[in-house]
């Protein structure tokens, strides 16, 4: 993309109740938000037997 740069940011530590729309609203005052994504937390449980 000549003359156009893409910027991405990672925002950590959000409440589990934050929606994509709330995230867009919070950052839209700094410029146009093209896309937002709030990922669901992933839990992985490894049950290792000791001994």
Automatic annotation (TrEMBL):
<dbReference type="Pfam" id="PF00076">
    <property type="entry name" value="RRM_1"/>
</dbReference>
<keyword id="KW-0694">RNA-binding</keyword>
<feature type="domain" description="RRM">
    <location>
        <begin position="7"/>
        <end position="51"/>
    </location>
</feature>
<dbReference type="InterPro" id="IPR035979">
    <property type="entry name" value="RBD_domain_sf"/>
</dbReference>
<protein>
    <recommendedName>
        <fullName>RRM domain-containing protein</fullName>
    </recommendedName>
</protein>
<dbReference type="InterPro" id="IPR000504">
    <property type="entry name" value="RRM_dom"/>
</dbReference>
<dbReference type="InterPro" id="IPR012677">
    <property type="entry name" value="Nucleotide-bd_a/b_plait_sf"/>
</dbReference>
<dbReference type="GO" id="GO:0003723">
    <property type="term" value="F:RNA binding"/>
</dbReference>
